[in-house]
Amino acid sequence: MDPALDGVRATASIRAAHNGSATTIRRLRNSGPFHLHQTGSHGEWARVSVISSMCAPLGGDRLALDITAEEHAKLEVTTAAATIALPGATGALATYDVRLTVADHAMLTWLPKPLISARGSTLHQTCTVDLAPTAAVILREELLLCRVPEPPGRLTTRLTVNRGGRPLLDQQTDYGGTTPAWDGPAVLGRHRATGQLLVVDPRLTTDHPPILIGDNPEQGHAVLTPLTRHPAYLATATAHILHRVGELLDTALEHIRNM
User: Fold this and answer.
1) With a threshold of 0.90, does the pTM exceed it?
2) Which of 53, 62, 130, 255 could serve as a FRET partner for 8 with CA atoms 20 to 30 Å apart?
3) Mean pLDDT throughout 78-92?
């Protein structure tokens, strides 16, 4: 194979630590398309924005992002713009792996802008979360299947969460291409935007029943559900446009904060 068509291999990393009064960034390692920029801090929180310096992921790319919050650190990580999965020169499979590690008494929020699956692309995205027993995390994911009225690419996402060395959540979703029934009534139906919000916090109680958010299924709705044996809630939303998915997930987060 022509090496020029073999895709980009890149792993960027962020590490935050607490110095007794505030969170400091101990490591920002740029790589490939990832340019990491520390933004203004807020109280004990440190903030980092992930900026893409090139079109990625393209077919054949192998991208990874490692984010670590050490004990008592409070870290918020966002992306500067939406991520667009593109077919590239070959249309080969691309991978994008996000790995989050949160130590005891630390808090991490991972709030990327939406991921857009463009026609002809094939992307396998994973997010692996390793939480200490007293760690907290807010994780948000928004997906748009196609940019205009066209078929989406093939998109597979997997979220795996372990807390205190024990499984909390492991789920995989597949959309587009030859995936069976992804656009059927039991999955997305006519909707092409979807997303989820995971909140894990030792201060939460999970004795609340599931909540249905949104009274018009044609416009979109969400379900907020407590997870068994862990102080955690998962909201899953589908809608006809991304903006509506965002509204539904915002509402879910407000419900959690008011519990």
Assistant:
1) yes
2) 130
3) 87
